[in-house]
């Protein structure tokens, strides 16, 4: 299963919504840039007037006045551009920050089952590469495009108003320019994608060689790694050459159009002036306008290209929002804490049931051990009982309410899953713990850490609870990280805990130690322990044997051993190990 990618209609609708939300900001930016562009048009207009005045004979005062108007216009333009640029930049930053926040909140509320099925690679690529690509376009592109469009439009309108006949020549380079730009854009996206892919491959090879330096050395893989780097470099060179070739057509092509247009205006305008259809001043002004407009045209071409690439990224980002939620929270409150499964089925892939109709009632406060051969469905059952996945058949309820109808934050207060996977976030140890209970005091944190036998090493850390942990901070051993995860659970205070391999990373002695302290903490809670060591099962109130997606036996340890079934066989073989 892949994460969805939004189609162009959805991307358009999203962009339109974005523009609607920021209507007033956009209006302000457009107004400021319009004023700046109008001031920018004054220079050439004044020069045109000057030419006409000088050719027709004028006074020094008139010339002086025009010069003053010109200078004032330039100064005004400078000031206006400064404010217009500032407003545009602030706007770009604001929109991008909103986009990023919206995206993060979408990603963090994605159904876990979807993320697991889609794999995290795609999601990570969307959160990093795609967001980065979009960032450039939103922060700089959108404001620059607004400026370019406003300036081009105003300049063309002013030229046409001044002398439509002369202005026609401005467009002489347009058909050729359009042809070249279309030719370029068609080839640019795949070429630049190949270029990025080749750099990614080169980076990967080099990083891998450096990180695995000892292995490379030990196995004498040096020449082979060298050959891989050479091959990647050759590909990067070839990819770069293609984009370079594209640019060697685009740049001179556009430059030619830029040279052609003023020359055409000059010739054509000169002819018209000689025939009395236009004044020399108008021709001068339009020639200058034509020069002036080439900058914004360039900018527009550049951004069209960039925005095309950004649109593909936006489609991938908006696509994440299209993931359908796997649960809808209702407002019915559980009447008690009794967890029960009825006719529970689950299939990771349609038509391949892993659980085949499980019925299970957990008594409040009891401890159930789930045992069974590898692949029997123990973990899947555990995840269902913790409400991680919605069942594909049957139901799991707490106090009569299906788990998937509880708001997530409420659900975690009823039942939580503890697995081997636990992440230590970059930041203070205290913050890592407060993820479970925001308003916990330091004393609460200490109590939770003591409960999982972790206080001793935490107190010995350089800054105790304030110690920076996670990547780049004080490294925690896997067992310590596991204890942090368990302490979070103590703070979360769920009524029911599903422990899946929660203690398997610890060495057996430590595991037993931790389990003992845990059981003190878990007093009064319902516990489902997926048991990989049978001694856990021995300590439980009841044992459920899962085989082939069904519960084949369930009952207290002694009864099951006495019954002489599957569990008894497992138990005896473990004792003889
Ligand atoms: N994410 C998944 N996608 C597809 N199939 C899966 C997935 N996770 C588990 N399965 C399949 O579901 C079945 C039950 O797996 P599960 O992990 O629940 O068994 P288990 O009893 O916990 O095994 P173990 O003790 O080895 O962890 C297995 O056939 C497994 O291959």
TrEMBL record:
Annotated protein name in UniProt: ABC transporter related protein
PANTHER family: ATP-BINDING CASSETTE SUB-FAMILY B MEMBER 10, MITOCHONDRIAL, ATP-DEPENDENT PERMEASE MDL1, MITOCHONDRIAL
Gene Ontology CC annotation, any one: plasma membrane
Molecular functions (GO terms): ABC-type oligopeptide transporter activity; ATP binding; ATP hydrolysis activity
Originating species: Cellulomonas fimi (strain ATCC 484 / DSM 20113 / JCM 1341 / CCUG 24087 / LMG 16345 / NBRC 15513 / NCIMB 8980 / NCTC 7547 / NRS-133)
Transmembrane segments: 26-46, 66-84, 142-162, 168-185, 249-271
InterPro entries linked: AAA+_ATPase, ABC1_TM_dom, ABC1_TM_sf, ABC_transporter-like_ATP-bd, P-loop_NTPase, Type_1_exporter
Domain of life the protein comes from: Bacteria
Chief site of localization: membrane
Localization terms from the record: Cell membrane
Phylogenetic placement of the source organism: Bacteria, Bacillati, Actinomycetota, Actinomycetes, Micrococcales
This protein's UniProt keywords: ATP-binding, Cell inner membrane, Cell membrane, Membrane, Nucleotide-binding, Transmembrane, Transmembrane helix, Transport
ABC transporter domain span: 339-573
